[in-house]
Amino acid sequence: MSVLFYSCATYCALWLTWLGVITQRLAARTGAPAPVPLPTSLPRVSILIAARNEEAALPRCLASVRALDYPAHLLEVLVGDDASTDRTSAVAEVAMQGFGGEFEVIPIAENLGQARGKANVLAHLAHRASTEYLFITDADIALPPTWVAAMLAHATPRVGTVTGLTVVQGAGALAGWQGIDWLLSLATAQVATDAGQPMTAMGNNMLVTRAAYRATGGYEALPFSVTEDFALFEAVNAQGYGFRQVFGPGVRATSLPMRSWGTLLRQRLRWMRGLDALPRRVQAALVLFSGYWLALPGLLVAGQPLWALGALALKIAAQALLLRVATRRAGLPMPGAALVVGYEFFALALITHASLSRLFGPRGVDWKGRRYA
User: Fold this and answer.
1) Which of 334, 340, 347, 252 shows the shortest CA–CA distance to 292?
2) Does residue 327 sit in the same domain as residue 354?
């Protein structure tokens, strides 16, 4: 029992130290690249939005596009309607009436090369786009007015992708826990990215230059992946382009939360499929990060319930400190104490349910009414 106790206690101490280092580096912005001034003559840019059955969410997204603090005549907005069975195209047309820039809804009826699903829609939109900067977002996203200019400020020569910060906001505890989960995960990834380690990209808040996109052959040349944003990110990096991940209010997009446990579970199962493509060092870090909960029952089995309770309290306190730093840097209010404490049990329930479903559930993933192997 003493071996088990010392092993679990040592693991908890190392985990807390690791989280402390992440918090300190996030606060210090160690290695974070500085933006550069925009040229006097602003470039035209393309905004690509893949949409399938998004009549409820799309007007909010397009309203934020219209509110961008960037000259409308320099914006080309392309919505790809992926065989929607609702009024996606109609509500998009209504939402963009009188828009001062270029706007088009493009029906997607065939596959390009290996592209499927969302990747196929974006492949079509990239072919139709006529600018050198491809801004990619989702129909359930609201963009900040400064989005285009703030992202362009990091698109220096030889930088192929720029990823902004996406947060989840909505009413209720489930939405609040999703918001905490996203912010903690992206804060951890930000520290690694600032240190020069490529982690991932967010396909709902992403800029890819046309030169970098073209160098990969486009989505139609990439193997199918349910995490198409990460596949493109990796392909761009493989072509020798640099990357930027920006963590701040100027690029902070807001995502709608998953409204039910079932839809949230399906989202996480889809993401777990994408973990298989992550570098081994990243997978190892995720295992290390998720293993803290295993140490707590280890302390209980070792006959140390007070140690287990103390380790849990320290975990909550350490993550609350990271969350405070992350919210300040993102320009967001700190969640309430009840949400912060409850998040621990939400995260445990979600990872347990998702892991069991991955092991014993049906193969493949559901996305927008389609099933992919």
Assistant:
1) 347
2) yes
The total number of structural domains that make up the chain: 2
Sequential DSSP letters for 250-265: GGEEEEPPPSSHHHHH
Work out the burial of residue 62: count CB atoms within 10 Å of its CB; fewer than 13 is exposed, 13-18 middle, 19 or more buried. Answer: buried
**Phi and psi of 243, rounded to 5°?**
-145, 155
Burial class (CB in 10 A: 0-12, 13-18, 19+), 177: buried
99: domain CATH number is 3.90.550.10
Q: Do 178 and 340 meet the contact criterion of CB atoms below 8 Å apart? A: no
Is 209 part of a structural domain of the chain?
Answer: yes
Which structural domain, as residue segments, surrounds residue 196?
45-267
Adjacent-strand bridge partners of 244: 162
**74 and 168 fall within a common domain:** yes
Residue 302 is assigned to a structural domain of this protein: yes
Cβ atoms 12, 314 nearer than 8 A: yes
Q: Which amino acid is at 286?
A: L
Domain end residue (candidates: 267, 286, 313)? 267
For residue 245, give the DSSP letter.
E
**Which amino acid, one-letter code, is at 162?**
V
Q: What tens digit of pLDDT does each residue of 68-119 get? A: 999 999 999 999 999 999 999 999 999 999 999 999 999 998 989 888 889 9
Q: What is the pTM of this model?
A: 0.91
The total number of residues written for the chain in this structure: 373
Tokens (6 digits) for 180? 């905490």
Read off the pLDDT of residues 107-166 as tens digits, 9 standing for 90 and up.
998 989 888 889 999 999 999 999 999 999 999 999 999 999 999 999 998 999 999 999
Asked if residue 303 and residue 254 are part of one domain, the reply reads: no
371 belongs to a structural domain: no
The answer to whether 126 and 48 are in contact (CB under 8 A) is: yes
Angle between helical axes of 2-28 and 280-290 (0-180°, round to 10): 120
